[in-house]
Amino acid sequence: MARSRKPSELVIEALVKASGWSAVVFVLLIFLFLLREGLPTFAEVKLGSLFGLRWYPIEGHFGLVPLVWGSIIVTLGAALIAVPLGVAAALFIAEVAPRWLRELLKPLVEVLAGLPSVVLGFLGVVALAPLVRTSLGVPTGLTTLTGSILLALMALPTIVSVAEDALDAVPKSFRVGSLALGATRWQTIWRTTLPAARSGVLTATMLGIGRAIGETMAVMMVTGNAPQLLLAPRALWSPSRSMTATIAAEMGEVAKGSTHYHVLFTVGLALFLISFGVNIAASSMLFKSRGGGGRMLS
Amino acid sequence: MKRLDAKTSERIAFALLGLAALLTVAPILLIVGVIAAKGGPAVSGEFIFAAPREGMRAGGVWPALVGTLYLTLGTALVAVPLGLAAAVYLSEYAKDNLFTRSIRIAIVNLAGIPSVVYGLFGLALFVLFMRLGSSIAAACLTLSIMTLPVIISTAEEALRAVPQSFRLVSIGVGGTRWQTIRRVVLPQALPGILTGVILGLERAAGETAPILFTGASFFLPALPKSVFDQTMALPYHLFVISTQVPGMPVKIQYGTALVLLVFVLSMNVAATFIRSHYRRRRQW
Fold it and tell me: Per the count of CB atoms within 10 A, which of A13, A280, B52, B129 is most buried?
């Protein structure tokens, strides 16, 4: 549709096209450099000891199980809080709240999304941890649960806004039809709107959990940094150490090119692959449900 | 047990949903309120414009504040042109084919990569492989790549919102494709693009993990002199004084948190304002 182009336009268009490709290039670069620094691990540490139960790098124990377990527990705790709360809040904002309240709530949720994790971590240390310690009667407030609460706060904005978009996308005719059949508004929400939006709500849940697994600073500050293996309920009110926190806490002090350094990159590689999997799954679900994943990033 | 009638169960359900919404926003108000109340008394002209003293237990936040400003501007310098060009490509040039879909998948994945993994990547590529060292340059490049997906996706959305008729008219009066984009589409999409840019930079300004090993310095009383120097940064400074320095006065911690919060939230407010202001004035 365009007229004959000047050479300068061709240059510009080439630049624009190259920029479009940059996202792919960066993902590949990230993957390659994590591989480059992480792969030597498998030559230096026996595969069996990577699956060991002890993370104690100074004595050469590189068992990743406690770190993975720490990440799982703290994320699970966060999901238990944030998923029901976030979906319910999204239902309220999208379906129940009057317009003025909606206009008030949405920017507030966006503010929560904008809070730096280190600010939440700081408040976790000075305010939340003492509260957890006294109310649970445990020796330290720096526990997995404290981390889960902060992570839930960070996952909430993602869950609320993606779930709300999914609810908004449900055609009005569904609701009108249900109401016309004599259902109450709540019956309509519960039996019609929510089931119609379920794939979007599931996407919201996955993206929220994805965000929680990758969170670093707040978790590192409040979970007490003890890589240990405890069974599920007790693990919640004891200190733990997530994969992300381990990288952040230890990378600054290791010698470049040492085994410890390589293992930390392997942990990073695992995190990269986890987030890759979560996002592919979440976006393919969204593509399937309505042929486009436009709003899911913000 | 008797079944609740429909009206009563609706009332209970709505009350519970309302409670969930309240529980979601109450922490925000509480967090901002507590930091404002406890940090307010600590913040003064001296606190803002002075360097930390006595092992950071006295003095102010000036080098950290300036460092965060440098990092944010440096990130903008790289991420804005690149992100904008990528958005133009996706919105105005790309056909809906396998290549374009792989770009979209890449963007979604960039957005999901944990911030600490960006830190590892920055360390491996910029600090070590490209030999930039732990520096402002390495930190800005790392933050730029992290910010890129936010900028691309919001800018693309803004570009797509410009009605097709605008483009057709411009082409119809003899404009080339690039002239149409440059003179018609971009100006119309500017408010939306600006909102996305600010939200992306807001994230960059508040992040700690990506700069931990790429350019943030524990303590540096003097301001950096070049992009190859390390710098202090507000988020990292807050992390340091709230976990690494024993006997730190709480007042200074809250003051630092407040300065960071104001820095970040003012960007958030600006973005919200631009969006609502221009949405109201828009004529299409």
Answer: B52
Cβ–Cβ below 8 Å for B20 and A27: no
Are the beta carbons of A13 and B90 separated by less than 8 Å? no
Q: What is the mean pLDDT of chain A?
A: 87
Q: Count Cα atoms within 13 angstroms, Cβ side, for B57.
A: 8
Q: Which residues constitute the domain of residue B174?
A: 45-281
Please judge whether B114 and A271 are an interchain contact, meaning their C-beta atoms are less than 8 angstroms apart. Answer: yes
Instruction: Flag if A271 and B116 touch (Cβ within 8 Å).
Output: yes
Q: What is the CATH number of domain A35-297?
A: 1.10.3720.10
B238 to A118: CB separation less than 8 angstroms, yes or no: yes
Taking the model in full, what pTM does it have?
0.90
Distance of alpha carbon B266 from alpha carbon B260, whole angstroms: 10
The reply to whether B134 and B224 lie within a common domain is: yes
Question: What number of C-beta contacts closer than 8 Å exist between A and B?
Answer: 291
Query: From B103, which residue of chain A is nearest by alpha-carbon distance?
Result: A24
Same domain, B155 and B277: yes
Mean of the pLDDT values across residues A258-281? 92
Residues B208 and B69 in one domain: yes
* B136 and B21, same domain (yes or no): no
- Residue A52: both structure tokens together: 């060991």
Task: Report the greatest alpha carbon distance in chain A.
Answer: 76
A contacts of B102 (beta carbons < 8 Å): 24
Q: Is B251 domain-assigned?
A: yes
Is this complex's ipTM strictly greater than 0.85?
A: yes
Task: Tell me which chain A residues have a C-beta less than 8 angstroms from the C-beta of B202.
Answer: 114
What are B155-189's pLDDT values in tens digits? 999 999 888 888 999 989 988 888 898 888 998 89
Q: Which residues contact A54 (CB under 8 A, 6 or more apart)?
A: A61, A63, A66
SS3 state at B162: coil
Average pLDDT of the segment spanning B235-256: 90
